[in-house]
Amino acid sequence: MEKTLNGAKLEVVQGDITQSAMACIVNAANSSLLGGGGVDGAIHRAGGRRILDECVRIRSERGGCPVGEAVITTGGNLKAKHVIHTVGPVWNGGKKGEAEKLGNCYRSALRLAEQHGIASISFPNISTGIYGYPKDEAAEVAIGAVTGVLARKHGFERIQFVCFDFENYDLYVERVGEL
Ligand code: ADP
Q1: What share of the chain in percent tops pLDDT 70?
Q2: Residue with CA nearest ligand 1 atom 18
Q3: Which of 14, 18, 23, 61 is 20 to 30 A from residue 123's alpha carbon, by CA?
Q4: How many CB atoms neighbour CB 115 within 10 A?
C-alpha cells in the first residue's frame, strides 16, 4: 500500500526491517544504546559489530539517548547505509506524555535523516513490542507525526512503515489508506 504526499511516497509493508533496501532504517532502541531484544536485537545481529561500536562511542560521549531523541550510526553489514536509533516511551497508561514522546521519536528521526541528506527511510512500529504501547494508538501517533513532517517542505522521496506483525500491518494499511 502506498500514498504520495507532497512529493514523497508513504508506504506500508509487512516484513523484517533488517532486510530493508532503503538508505536508512530506524531502530527502536533503549536509552543505553547497547542493544536489547525485539527489533533492536535483530538489527544488531544483522548489522554486526560496527553498529554497536558506534553506539558505545556515542554513549561514552553523551551518555546514551533520551526518550524521543535520535542518534545515527553506520548500517554496518545491512543493506541500509545508516541506522537511526531512537528511544520510544514505555507505555504507562497514556497520561504520562507517551503520545508526545512517541511522536518525537518519528520527528527526531526524520530531522536527523534530513540533516544527513537521507531521502529514504524505514520505520518499525516503535514502542509496540516490549514497551507495550497499544498498537492502534501508536499507529495514529506515528502516521500523524510522519504526515506532519511531509506536509511541510521536506527532502524525502520514500518513507516506509515496516510492520512485522499483521495486526500492525492491518492498522497501518487502513489508516494510510484513508489519507
Ligand atoms: P519496543 O521496545 O520499542 O516496544 P520492540 O522491538 O519490542 O521495541 O517492538 C517494536 C516493534 O518492532 C514491534 O511491533 C515488533 O513486532 C517489531 N519488530 C520486531 N522485530 C522486527 C523486525 N525484525 N523488523 C521489523 N519490526 C520488528
Answers
A1: 100
A2: 39
A3: 61
A4: 10
Q: What CATH topology corresponds to 2-177?
A: Leucine Aminopeptidase, subunit E; domain 1 (3.40.220)
Give the pLDDT band of residue 179 (cuts 50, 70, 90).
very high
Backbone phi, then psi, for 50, in 5-degree steps? -60, -35
Chain segment 158-167, per-residue pLDDT in tens: 999 999 999 9
Residue nearest atom 3 of ligand 1, based on CA coordinates = 127
The answer to whether residue 40 is catalytic is yes
